[in-house]
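Per-record layout

source: Trichonephila inaurata madagascariensis
name: Integrase catalytic domain-containing protein
length: 380
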Amino acid sequence: MLESKWWEGPLWLKSSEDWPAKELTCEPREVISETRKSELVNVNVFEESIPWYAVRFSNYHSIVRLMGWILRFINNSRTTVEKRKHFELSSHEIKSAEKVLIRIVQGKMFPNLSSIPLVNAFKDNEGVIRIKTKLTERKDDPNFIAPILLPSNCILTTRLIEYYHHKHCHAGVQILMSILREKFWILKSRKTVRDVVRWCVRCRQYISKSPVSDPVSLPSDRVKDANVFDVTGIDLAGPLFTRDGEDSNDLIPLTPSLFLNGQSSYQTIDLDLSEFSKFQKRIRYRRKLIEDFRSRFRKEYLGQLRQKLPGRDGKVRTLKIRCKNSEIIRPIQRVYPLEVPIESNENVKFDGVAASSSSKVNDIITHNEVIKTKLVGQVD
């Protein structure tokens, strides 16, 4: 085995005389016929302009009702006067209008079934494109077994997600996807739902955080070494109530937190002695009183940032706020920025810089800066 030197290969590889004289040639047609066929499908379909059904209405339910009234007008025009419908839309008409809108969108986004990147797509008896799932043998709702296909970059799909998001009490992304999956199959569902939920104003109010600052250093009297009771002080603990002065019939003092959190008190002393009409009058008076206090609170406690007050280390922890009739100083933890729309034709100054458009304003504002706009200062 060692003498044969098998690892060097056969002998004809060493002599070039045994090699073929001709060069290998191949037919291009045969090569092309044997290459692997591949098809590229572009699924990033989107609408270039706002469709006619979404010009005047931004709510999905309103858009469906608009289509329902159009279909009723068409049907009434084709029938006699005795058979025409004149009352409110029925549930059957609303469902038919919804399917007509879906067919319009599907016909624009998916001209044929071959343009759909899913192989299990088909059309039902009403011409709606659906997706065939693995649950065909299950006894369930037909919309759940074969959901309706909808594109991702479509105004109707966005309005549909917004409608279900508000209907189910501002549900999150995962819950909203599960609810929509019972009837619809949206391409790029998670990304589409996340983009809609991200722009919800109510949800952004709950996830927003108040500005924070670095902790301030303790004063020298509290950190130096001293004997017991050499340094004393009083902490701000609020009003003090004595035991003899407490009365269960006293009214609860109004605080800013009652208006910010919307807390209500139902302590009506003369409830058992009043009649029903008086009780209704009392409720209306109480509702009007709360609205008056709420409007007064917004006028008197909403202010504008006037000056940042830096500490000894140069970091800002307190602010001077301009109220309706005076100026107050509040810590930055007690100040909450509110979003105020800025028109493009107004000249607004941010830290002494004039901005004539909203794009310039966005370039000035950063994440850690305090926005010079209307602020809420909570007074304890």
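summary: The two ends are 98 Å apart (CA to CA). DSSP finds twelve helices and eleven strands in the chain.
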